[in-house]
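Today's session is about reading a structure prediction critically. Students often jump straight to the picture, but the first step is always the sequence itself: look for stretches that repeat, for charged clusters, for runs of hydrophobic residues. Only then move on to the predicted structure, which in these notes is written as discrete structure tokens rather than atom positions. Here is the chain we will use throughout the hour.
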Amino acid sequence: MHTEVGNHCAGARVNGRMVTLDTPLQNGDIVEVMTQKNSHPSLDWLNFVVTEGARNRIRQWYKRSHREANILRGREMLEKELGKSGFEALRKSEPMQGVAERCNYHSVEDLLAALGYGEITLNSVVSRLREAVKSRQPAPTSLESDIALLPLSTPQRSLRDQPTSKSQKSPISGVEGLVYHLAGCCNPVPGEPIIGVVTLSSRGISIHRQGCQNLEQVMGDRLVPVSWNPPESEARRPQTYPVHMQIEVIDRVGVLKDILTRLADSNINVRNVNLNYPGQLVVIDLCIEVRDRDQLERTFTQIRKLSDVLNLRRISQAQE
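Below is the predicted structure for this chain, in token form.
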């Protein structure tokens, strides 16, 4: 059947009776293919077409006619994985162009279209992007062969001062063998999208929460795709992470006690408390410790249920 007939197929009759396009044929059946100018292939057809040639024609039509939508979809997938600011920083970088060429695409837009269409997987793109960023790092010297160097001059002593224990699995995937730390400006917690930044000091890779304002001025070649590893067994004490929050409440006796009681009931440890009194309100700055995003969201929900709480938000600290 001619490709253009398939591209405008609106239905079919077999022996004069309307049937679905996936109806099996018998020897001697008389088939009539109905076409319409505005009809076009559907990706659902890939589930029942028989020949590889037919599958390729359907894919080609879809790619041509939905290129802009596919680019947008691929962009959204990478923004969700890397963060909007992280993606924008990487979009025109050499590592991103190198990944596109390695995947046999002429441009980054071609790569995004293929990602949005499903011709290449998100994990494949992110993995190759991580490899492209790491490949820009210099090879270790003989004195540093037992550690992984960052793509900048880092004293050996600083790297040895902060190793990740080999007996424990790193909570961060993508920084294996590298020195890293959680950024104090945004304090990411497990379950939140994150991205790594190669620091300009001896502190290795800084792990930021995606959307952190401090990422806006970071060059793309300093970004490293990272993610949280699944949590290990709860046999040992779970690791906790600091989160800074600010609560605006009506000034009354016992309001702070009520908040701290809610936190204690949720088994939340409080690191620091600071109170300010602007007018008739009290602004409470708290630093608490949580295991992951789910526990943080449950904690916020419990505090918001207090009738005297007017506003609750998570706050960032000064840039490192």
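Discussion point for the tutorial: The radius of gyration is 27 Å.
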